[in-house]
Specification:
Transferase(Phosphotransferase), domain 1, 6-stranded antiparallel β-sheet, 18 strands, Phosphorylase Kinase, domain 1, 5-stranded antiparallel β-sheet, alpha+beta, 969 residues
């Protein structure tokens, strides 16, 4: 038998004691990390519940303030649906703070449901939700957010009233949000909204509580939690990363009005949920009236509510066009199963582009160029595949997807999953597009099927009517009348058919696999003894943080209760089960010891799965979260990835830690997500550009070579220049062994990127790198070819010489100039003869000044002796009529002689020009010659100075006699 927890023993020792000389502690109700709860009797005979701080922390002022805060918040709500806090005081003997609360009679909602097989009726569930929302309406009006709504915190009093328990982790909106650290998780995972599960407290508001109400309704009606998971950690990860599944998936026969109500409450994005408790409760009232009251009255109430909130003029009816009827007639018996697999794949691609356009619209707005570009891309793809098809392209519709046979062509993510749902709900079972559709009609069709039924459609509208009214020429559909009249038998048959359609739509292979996996895991779990389970829970609670005494005690009680049929467990708490459940739920958690970071839980789960060679099972939901964020909030997606990666730690093994972190980055970033992140980089002038670039730098510095194809595509894409430094750093880090993939990039890369890649490859002395450089020799950019050939064959190769000759003779002056610069930079001496011929040709005088200057500079740099001879020849040229271009060329020759002259003929020629007649030489030329002589003088002085510093012995003259005649080029 497991020994009683020492803390429980300590608290039990207080039984019979008097608190403040007036409250006798009669029974121990529950024990938490900060306090214990007792049933107590006042000296005047009244009974209440006393929540008393533990002695060891009683003198901690900060803890005491936080402890008493629950009484303040609960009373501030000002609603009968909260537990009344009667008093707070301090024990005279121990100094421990305590609060006095009313002692309720009844049972918690989860206890009531458990006695009923885990479920409650729809009518009772809606009543519970209605009363809960009434309390929340008052709480939110006072800026109070509960943050831990769940069936265990809803109490059924003997009078049938619902009381909200445990405002211990509630917070006031006006409080400094820094009091709750980002990433710190408080609450119950099965009933946490996504923002709360991720610890994003700045995003937590009243809509977070409304999500929890939706989850409570889901659980009470279905007997299941919104997300599936065997442990609290699994549920928390799922809550943070996955959209809630529809109630229709687990309760196919649930009324459509209830499904819609709960689905909206459980929307992943806060903006898609009810925006306040009042509107949620109003819609709930309409649903209850429709299902259990006067239906005509309910319909009237819907119309009234809509008219009150939106007074829009009636939408004008458009005249139907003949082509519309002709199109509908032509395709009234259309069968999508006749499409080829290739056509189905292309259709799926269209809807991928459409959803990407929706994301751009949500991120940038309707009029942003990027939004228009994405919609245009979707239309062009649609028009293209229609042009290639023999007939129209159509698809079937179920509540969750567009499909053809057993192939899904579109299963949209939140919030666009409403599109197939709304179409199916309104009776549309098939839809298609006809060749010849223009962009204007395509955009009208897209806008119509994506209308939000809550904010953009009147209650009397449905999509079938609106499709008919739109009279599309190139869109057809098939619909059934879900409200068709008939006798009772016919209506029953129709409803049965509808249920079968929905049931068929819900049959998904991956769902079946998931259920089998869960069942198998439960089978494995069933073979563990209660003692092993308790030990595992304790070990989990103690891992990396102080033990949570309350949670450990509750876990032990749960397992021992099962093991001993209530023997030891019952002895822990001497009070009836319902009251024990009530106060167990109300215990104030100690934030310092019970809070977990979502990222820590997810990271630890990934490490464990990676060790068991099953990383994909944990990574899949996390990847879905990153995928979802990447299209709407890419910066947050990268922040989430970084936070998760930094939380991965293998204690005492830095090398393995880095390996697991790398695996996490690879698992969480799908190719589509990485591509979206890289291509959505803001312009430098846009807000957030630097932060975005910083996060991309972190992402790329931690990815393996598997991401190379995506990075390469991004480098040659429209954002390539902005990504270039980071992308090149990534390629240099992971490029070894993948040189061929880099080499293939030369065919598409621009000049700057190609040169950067070439220089990176040149540093790698491997056969594979040389083969990649050889691919650069076929680049469309001449300079890339030149540099590649220089690296491959050396500066004197015949192939390089021929390449240079072709470039030096190119018609484009920019190409010739670039070739001359490359010749100088890479010292391509093999092209020297062609350059000399070009300089000595009569056309050289007519060239642009920059090109002439670069030609002489390149020649004199590579072959100073040959450059001297050519400059002497140019300076010696004489014409009776001299153009400015001619004189400019001779001035350049004088300037370069100053740097390369080493013979007396050059010196004599410069002296002759400098002192010559103004009739023979222009003023500028004589001035250039004198400047060259001055420069030669400087060179001579430098030479003499260096000679005096050298050892004695014969030294060459600074200016020697020519050793032979000037050679030919």
């Amino acid at each position: 038998m497991v020994e009683e927890d020492p803390l429980v023993t300590q608290c039990r020792a207080r039984l019979g004691a008097l608190i403040s000389g007036k409250w006798r502690l009669d029974a121990l109700i529950g024990v938490g990390g900060m306090a214990a709860v007792y049933a107590a009797t006042h000296r005047n005979g009244s009974v209440a519940a006393i929540k008393l701080l533990h002695p060891e922390i009683a003198n901690n002022q900060e803890v005491k303030t936080r402890f008493l805060r629950e009484a303040y918040i609960a009373n501030k709500v000002g609603h009968s649906g909260t537990v009344q806090v009667l008093d707070d005081d301090q024990d005279d003997a121990t100094g421990a703070a305590y609060i006095v609360m009313e002692l309720l009679k009844g049972s918690t909602v989860d206890s009531k449901a458990e006695k009923n097989g885990g479920r409650l009726s729809i009518q009772e569930s809606l009543e519970i939700a209605d009363q809960t929302l009434a309390v929340l309406e008052a709480a939110h009006a006072n800026q109070i957010i509960h943050r831990d709504l769940k069936p265990a915190n809803l109490f059924f009093t003997a009078s049938g009233e619902i009381k909200l328990l445990d405002f211990g982790i509630a917070r006031l909106r006006e409080e400094n949000t820094k009091q709750t650290q980002t990433g710190m998780v408080m609450g119950t995972p099965a009933f946490m909204a996504p923002e709360q599960a991720m610890g994003r407290w700045s995003d937590v508001d009243g809509r977070t509580d409304l999500w929890a109400v939706g989850a409570i309704m889901f659980t009470l009606i279905s007997g299941m939690t919104v997300h599936e998971g065997e442990t609290a950690g699994e549920l928390q990860v799922a809550a943070a990363t996955r959209p809630a599944r529809s109630l229709a998936r687990v309760v196919p026969d649930a009324p459509l009005a209830v499904v819609r109500l709960i689905d909206r409450a459980l929307a992943y994005e806060r903006e898609q949920r009810f925006q306040d408790a009042k509107s949620f409760r109003a819609q709930l009232a309409l649903v209850r009236a429709e299902l259990f009251g006067d239906k005509e009255q309910a319909k009237s109430a819907v119309l009234k509510a809509t008219a009150a909130n939106r007074e829009a003029p009636p939408r004008p009816k458009r005249a139907a066009r003949p082509n519309f009827f002709q199109t509908q007639k032509l395709y009234e018996s259309y069968d999508p199963s006749a499409l080829t697999p290739e056509e189905i794949d292309k259709l799926a691609k269209v809807f991928q582009l459409v959803e990407r356009a929706f994301t751009g619209q949500e991120q940038y707005g309707d009029e942003h160029p990027e939004t228009r570009r994405r919609f245009n891309e979707a239309y062009r793809e649609t028009s293209s595949i229609l042009a290639e098809s023999d007939d129209a392209l159509g698809w079937n519709i179920n509540p969750y997807s567009f499909f053809i046979g057993d192939k899904i062509v579109w299963e949209p993510k939140e919030p666009w999953n409403r599109v197939p749902y709304q179409l199916f709900s309104d009776g549309v079972r098939l839809m298609g597009l006809v060749p010849g559709i223009d962009e204007e009609e395509f955009m009208r069709w897209v806008k119509l099927i994506t209308l939000d039924p809550v904010s953009e459609m009147s209650p009397e509208d449905d999509l079938v009517t609106m499709l008919w009214d739109a009279a599309f020429e190139s869109v057809f559909y098939q619909a059934i009348d879900s409200f068709s009249e008939g006798d009772q038998e016919q209506r029953a048959s129709f409803e049965e058919t509808r249920r079968k359609i929905v049931a068929d739509a819900l049959i998904r292979p991956e769902a079946a696999i998931g259920r089998a996996w869960v069942a198998e895991k439960r089978e494995r779990e069933s073979h563990r003894s209660p003692a092993q389970k308790t030990a595992q829970i304790r070990q989990f609670l103690m891992r990396g943080q102080p033990i949570d005494t309350e949670a450990a005690a509750q876990a032990a009680e749960l397992e021992l209760g099962k093991d001993t049929q209530g023997g030891q467990a019952a002895s822990l708490i001497d009070i009836d089960p319902d009251t024990r459940t009530l106060f167990g739920a109300r215990l104030e958690p100690d934030i310092a010891t019970t809070s977990e970071r979502f990222v820590v839980a997810a990271a630890q789960a990934f490490v464990s799965a990676w060790s068991a060679d099953d990383a994909a099972s944990v990574a899949a939901p996390l990847r879905n979260a990153v995928d979802g964020l990447s299209h709407g909030a890419p910066l947050k997606a990268m922040e989430m990835l970084r936070t998760l990666r930094e939380a991965v730690t293998v204690e005492g093994d830095a090398e393995t830690t880095e390996r697991v972190r790398g695996a996490l980055a690879d698992e969480l970033l799908s190719a589509d997500t990485l591509g979206a992140i890289l291509t959505d980089l803001p312009e430098p002038a846009d807000p957030g550009h630097d932060d975005y670039l910083k996060e991309i730098s972190y992402v790329l510095s931690n990815l393996s070579a598997g991401a190379m194809p995506v990075v390469i595509e991004a480098l040659v894409g429209p954002r390539g220049p902005l990504l270039r430094p980071l992308g090149l750093a990534y390629l240099e880090r992971v490029g070894k062994g993948h040189e061929g993939e880099i080499g293939a990039l030369f065919a598409r890369a621009d000049l700057e990127l190609s040169l950067a890649l070439l220089r990176a490859l040149a540093k790698v002395q491997t056969p594979e790198a040389k083969q990649a450089v050889a691919m650069a020799a076929k680049s469309p950019h001449p300079l890339v070819r030149i540099e590649a050939l220089s690296n491959l064959e050396g500066a004197s190769s015949a192939q390089l010489r021929n390449e240079m000759r072709a470039l030096l003779e190119d018609r484009d002056a920019a190409v010739r100039l670039a070739a001359l610069r490359a010749m100088e930079k890479y010292r391509i001496s093999a092209a020297g003869p062609f350059l000399v011929l070009r300089i000595c040709a009569p056309e050289f005088f007519k060239l642009d000044h920059e090109e002439k200057n670069q030609a002489l500079k390149s020649l004199c740099t590579l072959r100073p002796k040959r450059g001297e001879e050519v400059c002497i020849q140019l300076l010696s040229e004489s014409k009776l009529i001299r153009s400015r271009a001619f004189e400019e060329t001779r001035e350049l020759a004088a300037q370069y002689l100053a740097e390369v002259a080493s013979t007396n003929p050059a010196l004599y020629l410069l002296e002759e020009v400098a002192k010559g007649s103004k009739w023979a030489y222009s003023h500028q030329l004589r001035k250039a010659a004198q400047a060259a002589l001055d420069r030669l003088g400087e060179r001579a002085n430098q030479y003499i100075s260096s000679k005096n510093q050298q050892p004695a012995g014969p030294q060459p003259s600074a200016v020697d006699e020519p050793k032979g005649q000037r050679g030919q080029p």
